[in-house]
Amino acid sequence: MSHSDPPNRYSYSPSLHWNPQLHQYFLNAYGADHFSRISAALTRPSRYSCIRVNTLRSGADAVIEKLRPLVSNVSVAVQSEFEDGESNPLKECLEDASAPFSKCKIPGLDYVVFVWGSGPHRIGYGEAPPKEVIVSRKCAEAVLRGAQVYVPGVMACSAHVEKGDTVAVSVAVEQQGADGGWGIPMTRGTVLQGSETDAYYFERNGLYIGQGAAMLSRAGMFRVSEGVGVDMKDRVYDLHSFHNLLEGEIFLQNLPSIIAAHALDPQRGERILDMCAAPGGKTTAIAILMKDEGEIVATDRSHNKVLDIQKLAAEMGLSCIKTFKLDALKSVCRRDDIDTFTDPCCNNAKNDVTNQVFDSPNLEVEIVSPIVTEGKDEKTNGRVYVSKADARKNMRRARNGPGRNQSVGGRVDRSKGFPPDSFDRVLLDAPCSALGLRPRLFAGEDTIESLRNHAKYQRRMFDQAVQLVRPGGVIVYSTCTINPGENEALVRYALDKYKYLSLAPQHPRIGGPGLVGSCEFADGYVEEWLRPGEEELVQRFDPSSPLDTIGFFISKFLVGSKDT
User: Fold this and answer.
1) Is 327 annotated as a binding residue?
2) Does pTM surpass 0.85?
3) 282 a known binding residue?
4) How many CB atoms lie under 10 A from the CB of residue 172?
5) For this structure, is 480 an active site residue?
6) Domains of the chain, start order
7) What is the pLDDT of residues 232-243, one digit of tens each?
8) Which end of the chain has a smaller Cβ tally under 10 Å, C or N?
9) What are the CA-CA distances from residue 228 to residues 12, 149, 154, 232, 492 (Å)?
10) C-alpha separations of 165 from 139, 354, 494, 510, 516 in Å
């Protein structure tokens, strides 16, 4: 590298830049030292992958043997110079420190397999300034989790890069413009000359995520719309990719999400609602805990996401899952829509539960044909002209996936909602600010107002959930955010509004306690959290804790008599 470069330029030392008011809110909630650790942890991936085994088809030992030849050994004993020395308690029973696999030792979770990685590692980029590729922030976050660099994520590239060249990979994180908006002021296809006049030259200091071999020339990277652009060879975090491995037999899932399914404690033969169920990880986890006996109604407002749930359930061979397109805010059907298709006391303990709702007038079948982006036209000699605008639109679709109004096609049943008290248990894994997901390299757009809006939306969804659970039933509410306003404040709202709700103990319990107290905002609004004695009845997963999980929150409510 050049002598003029700062010593930490070719390193990975990111920091999250928060909205100032939001930053102060989190400082009040956690304290300066604790929030500093949380913020730093969010920029790193967990140093292990968590695999949930489909126990209806296989077992943990069998999966480990199948994965062993497919997963290269990584030394899990490597301790980074940046770590604080605290060991992950999930590793305590690891028999072989050099083996990447271990079974979970938490009671009841012996079907969960941990695949250990390592990092952060210092990467040697050589003495001279390396040839470089700049990738988008979302691409970089995926690479940090073990993915390759795919062509749609490449933003810029050094001149004269040829296939097979070694390239350093850095990330362009959104910057705030003069108008207050956030973006990347760089045209895709920008040429890098290796000088300080390059785009994002200084902004990329400390944002290098590894190096790899270019799979295409520079021209090729910006000419094709899909495929691997850089095959990563040396990574800051060495984690395993499980893309397309043992489909139907395993599912890659964060440990707290698995804990949430256990907290619901589903029983065979019960009728369970999973609101906002996509992509189906918790839905299928619940179905497997029930031994595929009973009925799970899984809903989502997106056609394509409902199709994702259907696909996952089919891959795993699960028949008890019924999927519907339904806005969670309309989960309770109107009185004039209530039909005899549901029995509010439905608790079929038999193994032949059928989906009686298909013949109900409360349901409509939605069949959407996939978007056609290319084809043949007899009047143009079998070729269809694609404008540059359409080509750009297709590129965005390849990079970002289909949008809300762009369906990939397939049959989805639409529901008008369900009668009150018609489910034994409800899981509400609510849409949230997702401020617990990691790795995260950008947080600038989140504000106090946007987080308050999330909380308002979640309360309305919870109101629906409460109506749908029968007396004696259970509600589990979870999020993947560190925001107390979407976690402890929701619990306070629920307990204060619905006197027949009570917090229940959760099993297993490996998360930490919730936050007690309140927070007063500049506009005078006071956000109430938990009261003393309630903190041990919820589970808060701290991304900076030795467990090394995402940030997550789980609360469990017992539903008493609604007549009181």
Assistant:
1) yes
2) yes
3) yes
4) 23
5) yes
6) 20-117 (no CATH), 132-235 (2.30.130.10), 254-336+412-559 (3.40.50.150)
7) 999 999 998 887
8) C
9) 23, 6, 10, 10, 48
10) 20, 58, 58, 46, 55
Q: Is 300 annotated as a binding residue?
A: yes
Do the strands 250-252 and 154-158 form a parallel or antiparallel pair, or are they unpaired? unpaired
Q: Is 280 annotated as a binding residue?
A: yes
429 in a known ligand binding site: yes
Residue 443 has pLDDT above 80, yes or no: yes
User: Could you identify the residue written with the tokens 């928060």?
Assistant: 18
The CA–CA distances, whole Å, from 525 to 428, 520, 521 equal: 26, 6, 5
What pLDDT is stored for residue 68 in this prediction?
87
The answer on whether 424 is annotated among ligand-binding residues is no
Least confident of 228-232, 298-302, 359-363: 359-363
Number of residues written out for the chain: 564
Q: Which of 157, 320, 333, 480 is catalytic?
A: 480
CA distance 189 to 186: 9
DSSP-assigned states of every residue in 226-281:
SSEEEEEEEESSB----TTSSBTTEEE--HHHHHHHHHH---TT-EEEEET-TT-H
Q: Band of the pLDDT at 95, cuts 50, 70, 90?
A: low
Q: Would you say 432 and 480 are in contact if contact means Cβ atoms under 8 Å apart?
A: yes
DSSP 8-state symbol, 343: -
CA–chain centroid gap for 340, Å, is 37
Gap between the Cα atoms of 391 and 59, Å rounded = 46
Least trusted range by pLDDT, from 70-79, 119-128, 415-424, 457-466: 70-79
Q: Can you name the residues that pair with 399 across neighbouring β-strands? A: none
Give the tens place of pLDDT for each residue, 451-465. 999 999 999 999 999
